[in-house]
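Worked example 4.2. Below are the chains of a multi-component assembly; read each line carefully before continuing.
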Amino acid sequence: MNPHKLIFEYLDGELNREDDKALRDLLKEDTELSRDFQSILDINYEIQKSNEEYNYPENFLDSVEEGILARMEQDNLLREEKERKRKVFFGYSIAAVPAFILLIVLTTLNFGNLQVDLQKILQNQTNELSLVNDENANQTNQLIQDNSDLVVNKTASYSVKKSAEKSGKNYQMNLITESDETAVETNFAAALDSREFNSIGNSSNSDIESKSVENENPGNNSTTNSVSIPSARNTSPDLVSDSEVNNFSKSKSANEIRIENSQAMILAQTIPNVKLNENLEKSFKKNISDFGTNFTTFSSTVSHQDIVMNSLLGTELVTFGLSNSHETVNSFTQSIGAVLDDYSQFGLETGYMEIRGDEGIYNLIKADEELNTLVLNNSTSSNSELTRIPNTQEANKKLFWAGLFYQRELLELNSLSLSSRISFGASDYGIVSSLKIMGSYEISRNFEFTLGADTKIYSGIKDLFVTQNNLSSTISLIYGIHFAF
Amino acid sequence: MDISKKNIRSEQIKEAAIEFSKGSTVAFSFLYAIFNRPIYRFCMRILNDEQTAKDAFQETFVRIYEHRASFNGTNFEAWLYTTARNTCINYIRKRKRTSSLGELDFGYVPTKYTKIGIREHIEEMLDKLPLTLKEAVVLRDMQDLTYQDIADVLGIDLSLAKVRVHRARLKLKELLAPLMREINEST
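Applying the procedure described above to all two chains together yields the following structure tokens:
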């Protein structure tokens, strides 16, 4: 074995008994090796001794420890504070999410019943729905039945109301039409989902009943008729059968037949899938003048897009209330929502805000520098400076957030509309809530330009900037585009 | 406070290291008390310059604090020395970039060794070793690390760690031979 290897193993305390004996023998035989051995032992001894007698810069070593401990304590405090905020945030979230959902449900229920003012529809040749509750619909019906002027004036009103009494998916449609001589109420009761309203013709459960009601107004010679088409599409979902027409023709007066036609017309106009048979169509064409030419303009069903996307850019107009040390430079919002009805949307919204403010930094000072020659360095560099002094510097931070929104149309005038949107979500730092007021100009049926204002309140700002308040608020000018498909 | 590593069980160090990685200041103080002097010595011996060694020492402990979450919980000492070694190497690279030709060593100049303390000679000769050998012998003979820890710190095999230490010792013996002869003759 290499004699020096034996010596080093001896130094490391790894020499076994046999090698120990071998080394001793070699040292006895070889004086040169013995000198080397002695030198190595001396060097090793001096090294060990030098470790023990090493002059350490005690103050420096202590200051390093103090500096790191100070930083650790500060970081621990920040972490605990952040943890506490997260717990508070999740507490708020747990309470806020059901409250938000409840708000949406209540708002939806409030406007859950639909009524179409057909006259307005006919005049404007639009397909818009206006929403009223059941009571209003009944009042309208009663008003039309009781008021001869309305009858004479060829008013026509068409309402669809959600049947509160019926469970499940039953809905009732009331049609009231008036001509000079007649006032007609047609009731449809159909078991169908509200969202399938336009495809009533495909419903195998259609159950349209009829009844005749004498007009209670003695001064009016008009007759109010209720007509039904029982199981109109049981056998052929797209066709009103001859037998149905014949049955009605045989059982009812001419006046009633005309009512049937009006019913069929409404079905045909309201339900794209329903086709009129020849007899009915002819009869409809013959009698259509009795209902006024405006009826012909009711040419398409009430329909709307199901999914909408909205991209909005924002720039700050004013920082108010809670903010004092920072401002929102700009923001971006992207949302995708489902149409609840022609006036309401509900969906997901994501966005980010770029916020400018004073962030906390540490200036680092070399431990052994004279006080009057302090060298300041940025804390982000990984240098070895020790003493850290808190300071601030202006910085832009991004805050990403995601949440739910509910949007409601407030006003509509031709291609212009005014909507409000309430959003509630969470960022990495806390809660974000937003209220937007937006005006939209419809370029096409699927595309709109939007301009408005966005008020945001968000928390967690203390984690980003040096500020007293954790909550912040801002009003921004927003502009963007809106797709519907 | 100087606490010898030999008096502390490795389990205690491991537990303290885990607590430190979670942010415990007590654990840090405990570990710092054990390792601050060895790490300072290590930095001094690798860099052979007090100011640079202080900078490297500080940076080593700042680094292990900032990267405490990446500690895998197995061998704190090896992790600490690895950080110190990497920090020292960075400083050596910086020094090489900034040093001028006039400051380079053109060769070994014999001195009257006995006029200077033997420890200073050892430190001086250490500095003449190639870095790979120097760090190996410093870790073994001056920092008292095991060969396995040295292998972990240097990122090499155990056998290669032993080879490097042995080569360094032989080289150091050669460099210190005149001094040792002089000492022997004088005694």
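Take a moment to check your reading of the output against the notes. The mean pLDDT of chain A is 62. DSSP finds ten helices and 14 strands in chain A.
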